[in-house]
Amino acid sequence: MTPPRDAAGAAYAYAELLNSQRQILGPDHTDTLTTLRNMTYWWRKAWGAAADAGQ
Predict the structure, then answer these.
(1) Buried-most residue among 5, 11, 13, 19 (CB within 10 A)?
(2) Where are the alpha helices (DSSP H) in 1-55?
(3) Does 47 map to a domain?
(4) Domain assignment of residue 51, yes or no
(5) Containing domain of residue 9, as a range?
(6) By C-alpha distance, which of 2, 5, 13, 1 is closest to 43?
(7) What does the pLDDT profile of the chain (55 residues) look like in tens digits?
């Protein structure tokens, strides 16, 4: 996989990682929660906080 070059690419990469971590480590594992936080950061960079609420 090539590294993401923009915020949207980073958000999608973290989303893929998050799915794997939830299955392997569980939803409450600290690494899973850190990945969720990182995905949220890049999601907001790419689409803004309004995208969180579907606005």
Answers:
(1) 11
(2) 7-24, 30-47
(3) no
(4) no
(5) 1-42
(6) 13
(7) 555 579 999 999 999 999 999 999 999 999 999 999 999 999 988 888 766 666 5
Which tokens belong to 47? 């689409």
Distance CA 6, CA 47 (A): 12
CA distances from 40 to 25, 48, 51 (A): 19, 10, 11
> Domain tally for the chain?
1
- What pTM does this model have? 0.80
In a domain, 53, yes or no: no
∠ CA 2-25-43, rounded to 5°:
45
